[in-house]
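Hey L., structure's done. Input below.
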Amino acid sequence: MTIPPRTALAFACIAFCGSSLAGAADHASITLYRSDSSGLYASNGDNNVTDGYAVVREQRSVTLQAGVHDLVLGDLPNNLDAEAIALGFPGDGAKVVSQRLLLGQGANAALTGLTGSYVAVLGENGQPLASGTLLRASDDGLVVRNSGGSTTLIRQYAAVSTSGASFPTGSSLRLRVDAARDGQALAVLSYPMSGIGWRAAYVATLQPGNRCSMQFESRASIANRSGRDWRDTKLVLIAGEPQFAKASGPRPMMMMRAMAAPAAAEALPEQSSLADYRSYTLPAPVDLPDGSISQVPLYATRMLDCERTALYENGGNWLPPQPMLNSDFNADSHSSIVSTLRLTAFDSLPAGYLRVLTADRQGVPQFIGEGRINDTPKGSDATITLGTAFDLRGGRERTRFHVDPAGRSMDEAFRITLTNAGDSARIVTVREHPNRWREWKLTSSSMAPGEQTADTLEFRVNVPANGKATLDYAVRYTWAAGDRPQS
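Output:
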C-alpha cells in the first residue's frame, strides 16, 4: 500500500504490527441520531463536514503481555469525542492505566496510527536508518526508540515498514494496559463520533381522480462521512432532538457514493420509545462505506388520503402589545397563490423531506414540489408547500379604515380578488389574520368563513375557469380604557 509522498521522497508500504495494534472489527453497533445538516447529504467537494452524532460500540481482539505495556487501537473515525471514549476488558484480566487519542489528520495520519508499533525506517536507496518502537510521527520527522532504549530522530526517509498486511486509517487510541497474563483478550470500546447522521426521506405519488390520495413511501437516508467504512453494522436510529452541548471539530470528507440498502424491502425497522424520543432498530446489519448515502425502508409503502389546497394568505399570527392605529399596518398585498398538501400521520413520522410526484398525460411520474415534515406524532397533521400555482393569482385592497378614539374602536374592510386562467374551476382558500389587536369581530362578509379563530379568518372561494371571484369582509377592533393605542 502506497502513502502520499513526503517532500521529495516517496513513502513505501507500511503495515501495522498485530501484537501491539488492534485493527477495527466489523459487526459494530451504532446508535445514530438524526441530523438535518445539508453538508452530510451534499454531493459537492466540501471537505469540512463535522455535523451529525452517533454512539459506536465495538469489540477488538488484542494481544496482551503480562504487566504494564502499550498497545494501539487503530481505524477509529477522524472526528470523535476524546473525553467520552470508554474501553474495558471483560473480567479482571486487564485494566486500562491511561489512554491517549492520536488524531488521524494531516500528511502523517497513517504513520500516527503506527505509534507504539515496531517499525523499520528505510532511506532513499533502501538502506536501514533505524528500527524499533515508533514514538511519534510529525512534520519534524519520526522518533524511534530501539531495543536498547536509545531514541533517534529521522528527518529524511523514504519508507517505513513493519510486519503485517495493512495499516490503520483514521484516528488511533494509544493505551497503557496492565495485564495479569499474556494472551488474546477481547476489548469492548465505545465512543461518540460525528460526520455521520440520518434523516427521513418520503416520496408521495398522487393518484388520479378528484379525491386526494397518494402512495406514500418512507425511508431512512443514512449519510456516512466519518472517515471510516462500517461493515455488517447493527443500526439503531433515534428520532427526536436531544441536546448536544459540545461543538464538533473539523474532519475530512470523502467523495459520496450512492449505495443500495442491503436489507430486504419487506424487512422493516422495529420501532419503540426511548425516553422522550423514538428509536428504530434495523432488522439486519448494513454496510456504510465512507462517503456514501444509504437508504433503508422505514415503514411499509401504503396508500394515504390527503388534502390539497390553493392558499392565498395575508398577514401573520403576530399580535402587537397595544392596538395599532397606523393606517399602513398590515396593508401588504401580493399576487402569489401557493399549493399546499396536508396528510395525517399514520404513525410517528420522524422529521425529513417529502418529495411529491404526480403523473403527466403519458402516465410518467413528474416532480411537483418538496417540503419539510417536522417530527409528527401519530394522528397529527403535516402540511407542506408544493409551490406557486401557475394559473391562479390574488389581489388585496383595503376598502375602508376608520378609527373612533372616543368609542375605542376601529373598523377595517378589505376586498380580495382572485383570478383563474386555467380551464377548470378552482377553490382557493383565503386566509386573513386580523392582527391590529386581540379583540375583534367579523362585522360583515360576502360569504361565511369556513374557519374562524382568535387570529385567523379563512374563506373557501370558488373561482370559475378563465374567470375571477371577489371576497369582501370587514372587522371591528375594540379596546379597553387601560389599553394605549399606537398611532
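The chain has two helices and 32 strands. Residues 229 and 289 are 4 Å apart (CA to CA).

-- N.
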